[in-house]
Specification:
This protein is mainly alpha-helical. Helices cover about 75% and strands about 0% of the residues. The chain is built from 20 helices and no strands. α6 crosses α8 and α8 runs antiparallel to α9. The relative contact order is 0.05.
Amino acid sequence: MRKKYYYGIASIIIMIALYFLFFHKVDTVQSRIDYIKNGGVVPPVNMLLQAFQADEELRARLQADFDMQDVVQYFRDKYGKTIHHKHTQVMLVEKLMSYLMKMYPDDWVVYLYAMLREIFPGMENEIFDTFEKLHKYTTWLKENNADLAQLSSKEKRDALWKKRYEIFGQDAEQVWEAEKRIEPIYNALDTINESNMPFNQKLSLYKQSIQEAYKTNTENFVKRKQQELMNTFLDLESVQKDLGAMTPQERKESLKEVRKAMGLDSEALKRWEELDQIRDQRWDAGMQYMQQRSELEKKYKGQELDKQLDSLRIKYFSNEAETIKNEEESGYFRFSQPRKYGLE
């Protein structure tokens, strides 16, 4: 009898082990999506109010004692005008997820459907379908993140778009509308980085790609994104290679042309030129420091070397000496890195 008891216990343990072995990786989000699609019970939304009461944004926009109907109306007002657009559906879903996942980590998918049904009755299944596709895409991203990181920027974009079309069909162009619009810029950046064309031609191609992407809205876009657009161009390896090969005066003029192309006025150009001078002086000091540092390392060891380096850092970096020291102790030597002109 006792032997049968032990056999029974052992069988249960084996079954539990097999369950975790085969099912611990089950996609719980997808299983709950399937539950809803198969007619599962959906709770009333009134019980979800506490998930929204904790949010400062809603408290600021609604009266202090808002109820669930106020929340529903808030989302209708915010997303209703363009809810048939797939990008709007994604934004709504992601916003609701941000509330529900915190409060209900296990059952938020079911509650998400409940909220969609309440906010946009008659469209809940369409929006929920968009959510399911988004989940499949983000799951694929996580599973393939390491492989994607090994690809070139163009190869990665191609792989992402291939998967987006596979899951969303043509709706992918709505979901990633902003990214699709700037595709000419991405293509131009790839061409620039891989080409040996003169610096001015690279800048011209970059400007043309922005014009192609934003057309009549180019001027407003450039005005809003001046810094970002300049940094993107200057951060390219081939652009930095060109700048590094120039004489100081040539480099000064080239940086000025980049900034003018991005719409900077004369006062802003003057400020940037002054900043470039400060950066040049800083890097000159950094190069001298590294040279003298190397000489000290040949002459001294141990505590005496530490003492000499402390004095050298104070000589060249003054108030930043301690920061430089901490960086070096962590293994980072900023002035042994290639300089990025126009950026540092």
